[in-house]
Amino acid sequence: MNEDFKKYALELAEKNKRNYGNRGVDETRNLIIETNVSMNSEGSAKVTLGKTIVVAGVKMEIGTPYSDRPNEGTLICSGELTPIADDLFEPGKPGEEAIELSRVVDRGIRESGSIDFEKLCIVPKEKVWNVLVDFYIWNNDGNLIDACGIAAIAALKVARMPKLDAENKIVSGEWSDQKVPFLKIPIPTTFFKIGDKIFVDADKEEQAVSEARLTVTSSNDKINALQKGGVGAFNIKEIEECLAKSFKIKDKILDVINKVN
Amino acid sequence: MTAKKTEEKKTESRKSYKATGRIDKRKATEMRPMEMSIGFLPNCAGSARVKVGNTIAIAGVYGPKKARPKHEELKDKLLLRCYYDLVSFSVPDRARPGPSRRSTELGMVIKSALERSIFTEFYPRSMVEVFIEVVQADAGSRCASIIAASLALADAGIEMRDLMPAVACGKIDDLVCVDLTKAEEDYHEGEGPTDIPIAYLPNQDEITLLQLDGKISKEELAQAIKMGIVACKEIHKQMKQTIRSKYEKR
């Protein structure tokens, strides 16, 4: 069954066509971003990428800094493969796949310098802001890394700082007029290898027959994070192809994110 | 002595909740505005989104399918599973992602309530899973969840006795009312808040979920539940219309 679909997908790819929709091998699905979908969060966003739906939200807490970075706030991204999204997702603790997803999104944001951590210091060595970005999958139709990465960034982009009282404690349910200090927009683009062809933004069926994937996260003209997944492999030519395409796709996604506020 | 006097004066001069009226100016029997929609999650057999005031819950249903694990299957009826999950950023102070004691209990009471509405004997050896995500919480999340879950079950075509509405009735200080908000649950003047979530099957005239926390007299409790049932019948109309409009559009 899977082998049949793989053959079919590759035949279509020869004609630069895909299984569903009128898109070519290098084209992404329709991307819609809605922001402020949950009023108690500092910022939130819902991303619809084709039939994949994810929701991300930002909460800020006060914590102690790491001893080697006494003047910097911290970031924790965590995602769940919510069982509502897919018959194959099980309730319970996050598995390997969910943890990889969280860490790839986390690295993209962290390494790009997207958040100005020094501005998240309240009292050096004592009190800093912890930025907690959580994402939930509502419907899985493949390419969750890109959908979650975009949702996380959109939620951060609109996030407001909570209000502090005179003793530097959070005033629950109130926000200051400042936004979370946000500098750059890292964008993940994932490539899926089926046979010797490279597919952009695979849906669930394509993802199921792909042997390898490569996620390229970049901001401005720099690459900030890479993650190769799957049992297959890429050669250097294929990697160069992915990198080149990544920058083109990134600009398209950036156009949508730039409209978010 | 003087301190005591001023305190007495304060209690005298304090207006009761009935006298001041509700925080959001609603009548005692008036619910918050509700929005309902179904069928927006393509992978699910059925799905629903329900907004009650500022509380938003979504529900997705998978099945009927083979019961798993095998040893838990029921020979003569459906195995219903229900999971309630509070999204970490749905509340002012972030909730830890993943299951908690609260979510486990709520999943269980919601399951028991929903099971009463389903013809479980029609689905031997099968399983239906209901997943609920509370996206935004402003009190009444379990009631919004039940409404969403019931709509999602209907959307999935599961055979049911009736759609099941739910509402939190209760008492704030001296005022018996329905559909409490978070601000009302936090109103601690006078006798404070009493929260009574109920779910109701209109065509069976049965209460399928009943919980209470607070302090209330027998008489007031009976009054609150009656008020809750009237509200449930109103919600039921909107639920029916939501299901109907999906097919009228076609």
What does this structure look like?
- The complex is a heterodimer of chains A (261) and B (250).
- Chain A has helices at residues 2-14, 96-112, 144-158, 204-208, 236-258, and strands at 31-35, 43-49, 52-63, 74-80, 121-123, 127-139, 160-164, 170-179, 187-194, 197-200, 212-219, 222-229.
- Chain A has 261 residues and is an alpha+beta fold.
- Chain A has one domain: GHMP Kinase, N-terminal domain (Ribosomal Protein S5, domain 2), CATH 3.30.230.
- In chain A, the strands form three sheets. In chain A, strands 1, 2, 3, 4, 5 and 6 form a six-stranded mixed beta sheet that branches. A four-stranded antiparallel beta sheet of chain A has the order 10-9-11-12, sandwiched between helices. Chain A has a two-stranded antiparallel ribbon with strand order 7-8.
- In chain A, a hairpin with a 2-residue loop joins strand 9 and strand 10 (197-200).
- In chain A, helix 2 (96-112) packs across helix 3.
- The longest helix of chain A is centred in the last third of the chain and has 23 residues, at 236-258.
- A five-stranded mixed beta sheet of chain B has the order 1-2-3-5-4.
- In chain B, a hairpin with a 7-residue loop joins strand 1 (34-38) and strand 2 (46-52).
- Chain A binds chain B through residues 37-42, 44, 51, 53, 55, 57-59, 61, 78, 80, 82-87, 91-94, 132, 134, 136, 138-141, 172-173, and chain B through 41-44, 54, 56, 58-60, 62, 65, 83, 85, 87-94, 97-99, 129, 131-133, 135-137.
What is the average of the pLDDT values of chain B? 94
pLDDT < 50 runs, ≥5 residues of chain B? none
Give the N-to-C terminal Cα separation of chain B.
75 Å
Question: What fold name stands as the CATH topology of chain A?
Answer: Ribosomal Protein S5, domain 2
Largest interface: A-B, 35 and 31 residues
C-alpha geometry of chain B: globular
**Helix-strand pattern of chain B, N to C?**
HHEEEEHEHEEHEEH
As residue ranges, the low-confidence spans of chain A are: none
- The rounded Rg of chain A comes to 19 Å
Q: What is the SS-derived class of chain A?
A: alpha+beta
The CATH architecture of chain A: 2-Layer Sandwich
